[in-house]
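Checklist before submission:
- one chain only
- standard amino acids only
- sequence pasted in full

Submission:
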Amino acid sequence: MSDPNTPAEPSSAERGDGTEGPGEDRTVELPRQSDAEPFDASPFEAAPSGAEPSAAGPPRLGPRPLERPEVDPDAAAAFGRPGGVDGGFAARRNGNGQHTTLVAPPPAALASAFGRPDPSAPPLQRPSENGTGKGAAHEDTFWTDGAERDPWRDPESAAALGPPPGAGGTEVETVRGEGARLSLREVFFGRRVEPRALAVLAVVALLIGAAGGMVGRFTAEGAAGLTDPDPTITQTVPGRERPPGSVADIAARTVPAVVSFEIRVGDEGGTGSGVVIDPSGYVLTNNHVVAPAAEVTGAQIEAIFHDGTRAAAQIVGRDPKTDLAVVKVEVANPVVATFGSSAGLVVGDGVIAIGSPLGLVGTVTEGIVSAINRPVRLDGAGTDTNAVIDAIQTDAAINPGNSGGPLVDSTGAVVGINTAIRSIGMGEGGSIGLGFAIPIDDARGIAEELIRTGKVTHAEIGINARSVSDGTTDGAQVQNVQQGGAAEAAGIIEGDVIVRVGERTIAGADELVVAVRERNPGDAVEVELIREGRPLTVSVVLASD
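Returned file contents:
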């Protein structure tokens, strides 16, 4: 494509000399028919009807008229040429024969990076010298002097064969194969080894042997200290003294009075513990231990003593409200436990729990009294136990199967009946140092009543309460009052908060239950309460349940 700014060469017609200019094509223009002369569709005229065609040729039909359908105005507006444009390209709009550029010039950075190079800039190739095509010599060449004579760089250099590797006077070391090994006879008598070498070998062997002997001697002397024939050993005495009051002494005296129970109800079974309280064979235990067999025909309760004696047991009486029960075992001259007093216990006293946890008969664990007068509501799942006990808390290990066994003090006297534990998680759990026992002062009277009548009556105040606290005072708020009960007769109404019963402070609903049940039916007791923010004291005559 020629540069539009370069003047065009004159054609031969313009020069008038009939010669061709450089690069000019020879073209022959065909004569065009004048627009004034009509175009003859056929050089022959049509023959009249029935006439023979002329010798010039058959008649020819004229061209069919060109049908141009009308253009839809909407389609013409969308796809038609712009106004003022008739051909396929827009008309030239400037004087130098080029179309105007409708696109904005590119940014300077893009034009510099991707545009055509500046003709005035030096080229990347080295300039030729004298038109020979060989690069001119420069001082900054990247090859070394004499590199042009290197045969590896000269494609016209001839091939030559050099000497083989190792030639040129280098001595090649000959690798010798392994020779035959010498026998002991050839070494000493065959004169195959120099006598000097044999002497050196003997000296080396003697030195190695001497070093090994010294190491062995030092090792033996060090081990001799561990096997001294005359060591000093601690002295022992023939017998071991167990002073009175030791755990061993208490266990030896109390374990024979403890029994283990096995309860079978159909295909199910359970275990528990008990303590003999009467020479006639009466055994005190928990209600939840024997309750599964209380009202089931064919249930069996078997007592196992410390010496392995087994005997059938019969339920004498049960008290679900205190979780106590008495059974009778037909045995001759059983060992009876000694009763102590739970009223004299203080926090920190040493205690021992005895029973059959998880069926392990005669297990003894030691601990202390962690708390006293601790109200604990028992969850007798699967039984009719619905008890709130005024418990002795201990850290002696108590586990399932210890229930009904005795808690004894440092004298060996029974001070409680192991009943419950507090554990983490659902279902049965092991001891975490939170065990609870029914005080023996409460259990003794209930056991005597069960042996005498087979049932027990308790004092009743006739209200239902819940634990409340206002941040400074705790108490049991009355939820409802039973009609005809002791509380209604004393004038207690719903909404009253009971804070004291007799001499005992009430901190919650469970403590109110144990405070009332530790008294007898018919006792008159002073009850302090708060009604609408004002303190009030009433006298209540406790009824019987």
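Reviewer check: The first helix runs from residue 12 to 15.
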